[in-house]
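[job 0412] stage=fold_complex status=start
inputs:
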Amino acid sequence: MKSQRLQRMAVTSASSLLAVFVALCICAVVLLITGKDPIEAYRTLFGAAGDTKVLQGSLNRATPLMISAAAVAIGFKMNLFNIGVEGQMRVALLATAVAGAAVDLPAPLHILFCFVVAMATGAIWAGFAGWLKVKRGVNEVISTIMLNFVALSLVAWAFDSFFRAESTTGSVLVKTKELPTSAWFPDIVDRRLSGMFFIAVLVLILFYVLVWKTKFGFQLRASGANPGASRATGVNPKRMVMISMLLSGALAGLVGMRALLGDVHAYQNNLAEQQGFNGIAVALLGRNHPLGIFISALLFGYLGEASGRLQLIDIPKEITTIMTGIIVLAVVIINEAVKRWDDRRIQHKAAVALETAVVAA
Amino acid sequence: MKFFKSLTTGQRTIALSLGFMLVLSIVRLFTNADDITSSGTISSTLRVATPILLAGLAGVWAERVGIVNIGIEGMMIIGTWFGGYGAWKWGSWAGIALAIVAGSLIGLLHALATVRFNVNHVVSGIAINILAAGTTEYLSIIFFKGQKGGGESQSPAGKGGYGEFDMPFLSGGRIGSWRSPDILGWIEQKHDLPLIPDLAGLLRGLVSDIYIPTIVAISLVPLTAFILWRTRFGLRVRSSGESPQAGESLGVPINRLRYQAMAISGGLAAFGGAYLSCVFTSTYRQGQTGGQGYIGLATTIFGNWTPFGVFRGSILFGFPSALKFRDEKNVPALLLVIAVILIALGIVSAMKNKQMLTMGLFIGAAVSAATYFLVDEVPQEFVAATPYIVTILVLAGAQQQLRPPAHAGIAYRAGENH
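[job 0412] stage=fold_complex status=done
writing structure:
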């Protein structure tokens, strides 16, 4: 059993690595066609790994990605596709910025309060999609896409109409009222690496425990893998849909906290933009496993941080976005191919075993 | 009701738009918001609605063949870029042509992933959206940066327009050098009459200041309907979306059809994108689509996966933006329009004995009407969010009436699912 699991893990990791390699190759072709030197590009891109500042920045960028990937993955475990992490995050950001600035609490409690508000609002927004799916049978992909745009408009309107604060520093950027310092999340490395990194790692650990070590997690995976069979054992699929959607939304609420509590300390337009959305790519590359998510988040965090270096040698940093798109496509294609290859291998093994058994008889 | 059900979709579209015009006319007389039915509003509605319409048709083609296309937005983005590039290099028609070719290729990529490699349709769509955004940003820096009028996120201005079209006699078009009288324009000014100036405004809006690409796009609606419901190819496409097993057992080449339909879908979406960068404006700008691909997806659903339905949806979703575009002051009048429509729907549902729905609709109407009297202007964000909210409400409330292709989005491998 153990060796089989190890074998499977090795195959999974190998296919993810292969996907990254394929993406690097295709991007090299893109660079060549557009008259850039791929070798120089990759030397610059990966040469930056020796720089401590770049590494700290990568961990910092990986922080929200880990949380948003966990939010997406918890849905995936149940065959739910929560594309709405971005919208859930955005609603939670404004709610937390406003609620956090309105109360006065000692430091650790204040941060805890902010977390609770963020998780609750994220869960409520995701709950709409869950409710629509459970009660009205609306596909969650469509509803979360639509709710993303509703969230975007709603938050922009609420921010503009009610929560803009007069700037005290003369800054042009419009923000909400600044959070009191008791709500600021401390940095590990000043202005470079937020302490939220530990929270993100904690989220991944809890995610692992919840999904693989509890009864609830077992039911979750079971109803994702085989809804009919798990219903027969007494698992209520609608309840599972609702719970996993709420959990996913609660995590989505936390995604923006590094930017809000650890960096800007107030809500502003574009705060933490795309961080909820990028979690989808991280979850896919990480195969919805906490360890995989951790490594993929580091990779994407690093690509984001080091891509700035490319501009120094006159290569658009957007090549890393292309790389992300190709990685997503390559990883699912390779998974599918590997799965079929694996199926055939097992079939073949069974056939051989059967044949020897027949011959022996 | 029986009479209404006996009509064809085309006739229903006409009946519904006449009803809608009547509502608009009543509200116009009541509020003096003359612009809500002016020809200018109608023609700018068409302009705003065209890219949404094309994106919606892209959704129809994809889902009818059985492939969910979340990548419409990405295909549109590709369309805006190649449209902008082509228009800059060779002129606007070349821009549209180039965009359609590029979009078809992206559509084929989506088909390759979903058909050949059996990838989850949503995942592939998301990958395409990321790829499209990255590729266009990358290419802009390579090709547009440093060019005259261009930049990191913007193309240089495209060459040549399309020429606007005015109908002689009806809207003052020219015959040779002689300017014909503008009959509809004259009727349109008689604001005290009910309905007549509104219809004149509608007609004049449809035949004045119209870009030829708009006419092409609108003619794709009946064309799509004809191909999908009146030709052998269309029947096969729909069989692939409803029940590929059944189709395949009758010898329909499911995989080939899916490639073909996805190429059409990608081309349509990219045409919509190119419309934004070559017709609506004359430059490509980063982020120009602004989620219109998703609004297109919403119209596919709203329009019940039919081309005429998509047309209705795109007009409905484009109308508030067009009105906003012309004059902010007219938008609140829409609240009354909504109230009247909700009351009408409420009466219909009351006749069907659906008490909860009826009550909800009447409450909605009351809230909408009350808001009209309480506010002076409708925030931009509400106008922007309307299509999405309407789609959620339709999905939540009218699922019984929706008929999505039965097999859209479900993994299928030719020759294995028997």
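[job 0412] summary: Chain B touches chain A at residues 68, 70, 113, 117-120, 122-124, 126-135, 137-139, 141-142, 291, 294, 297-298, 301, 379-382, 384-385, 388-389, 391-392, 395-397, 399 (CB under 8 Å).
[job 0412] exit 0
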